[in-house]
Model the fold of this input.
Amino acid sequence: MESIKVLIDEETLQSKVAELAEQIMKDYAGKEVTLICILKGSMFFTVDLARRLKNVVNIDCIMASSYGENTISSGEVEIKLDLKNSIEGQDVIVVEDIIDTGNTLAYLLEHLQKKNPKTLKLCALLSKPERREVEIDVNYIGFEIPNKFVVGYGLDFNEEYRNLPYIGYLE
Ligand code: IMP
Ligand code: MG
Done:
């Protein structure tokens, strides 16, 4: 079993989620908000964020996957599971675990924009700016991290480690 080093501990993570929720509540005061969880990596983040919001909150999920593990840079993304409900006219916040090259989000945001939400914003817990290939406009960001492969709090390595309550990296 690989050894995991802690990059962002549970307490730091949770206070950041609380901070992001405060910013969102300020910006969306009195409004109903639709959170879109990008499966599977954003599950934990979406849940923790949602339960801190005092707004009326809808939650829907979408799943995307890139064609081929190592060819993400082609920017070819496939929707594996689309939203269940319409988001037309709604204030939508896409909740993402990590922005790496940006290809997945570039595709997903365009896909979601076609569904005519009233507003479409992005909340990402982590970002690896060094790896960016496509510019992504992030409205709410948790942490910028170095170019390491991270796991935990929803993020996996071969489907493992999602349930770690902190963000770690593989040595
Ligand atoms: P992008 O299209 O290159 O931005 O890739 C984004 C997706 O790749 C994320 O939503 C994650 O699911 C996955 N990913 C990118 N970096 C990591 C990492 O360090 N650990 C785990 N998953 C990652
Ligand atoms: Mg993801």
